[in-house]
Amino acid sequence: MKKILIASVALAALSPLGAAAAERTLTISVYAFAQDDFKTLVYEPFEAKCGCKLVVETGNSVERLAKMEANKANPVVDLAAVSMADALAASRAGLIDKVDTAKLTNFSKLYDVAKDPNDDGMSVGYTFYATSIAYRSDKMKIDSWADLLKPEYVSHVAFPNVTTNQGPPALYMLGLALGKDTPDLKGPIEALGEKKDDIVTFYEKSSQLVQLMQQEEIWAAPIGRFSWAGFTKLDVPIAWATPKEGQTGGMNVLVLTKGSKNQDLAMQFMDFWLSTEIQTKLAEKLIDSPANSEVKLSEAAAGNLTYGEATAKSLKLIPSAVALDNRAGWLKTWNDKVGQ
Known about the structure:
- This is ABC transporter substrate-binding protein.
- Pfam families: SBP_bac_8.
- It comes from Rhizobium vallis.
- Residues 1-21 form the signal peptide.
- The protein is α/β, with parallel strands linked by helices.
- It has 2 domains: 25-128 and 250-309, D-Maltodextrin-Binding Protein, domain 2 (3-Layer(aba) Sandwich); 129-248 and 320-338, Periplasmic binding protein-like II (D-Maltodextrin-Binding Protein, domain 2, 3-Layer(aba) Sandwich).
- Helix content is 36%, strand content 18%.
- The protein is built from 13 helices and 11 strands.
- It has helices at residues 35-50, 61-70, 84-92, 112-115, 167-178, 186-194, 207-214, 228-232, 263-274, 276-284, 299-302, 309-314, 320-337; strands spanning 3-6, 25-30, 53-58, 79-83, 96-97, 124-136, 158-160, 201-203, 220-224, 238-240, 248-257.
- α3 packs across α13 and α6 (186-194) runs parallel beside α13 (320-337).
- The radius of gyration is 21 Å and the shape is globular.
């Protein structure tokens, strides 16, 4: 597993946090995404503030949760950034502690949806994203998620595989549109199965969609807002759909490792990450959509992110318990009706 040791850039004696944090090390576990920017915008400034050393471990969620489980008796990681569902899985496994939000000066600034995503007090959201449909506005009109399956459109559609982050949310919204919104997602999966020979591809990486759109092999695809910027650079008219059923999406959260000896420092880092200043810098770099409601963005950044109170309130997120309890069933139904 990749490990980056970031050296302290300020003397503890000069630190606003003082000698209490001197010579201390905080270990965090995060996604590998945009680490050069995180180092510059988040990690190094925090080290300068705390007079401590930050050790950053990266990897996919499976790897990182497995390491937390393996070191449960003697934790190595102090704080982790994971998805809502992974946070609930970690909670069920006894790997994380409650977050004392009274110690977070920036907690009150968060959108309500980010304050306690799993309704258990075990995580705090730091970014979320919308999922909707990117489509060729000169070729089609999208008023409903069900429009993707219209005979005149379906042969120009790419749909996310159920194993991807976008798969279940897109299926959930399709189910709402079809009046088949049970947690097992059986209705929308069966509907896709009936059209599987018409659909261009069940994609696994959103990066392939921009080229397919440019080549006019597809006209529409459900995507996360974080993928939108690439579509805006195409020389064809692309729109972001606002279907009548609404938008779905996902959220990433911060959790504290149970038994960590550095929870006070981890809380300070969590608060720093949630601050208006840091959330603004990350958003302007198009790295994360802000969970802090006080963030004010340029028009260019706002147009490429999931931004604003109205958007935050409108997101229809799959509850983590539903995701965890149904994942195996979703995959089985998908393999039976759509194929691998």
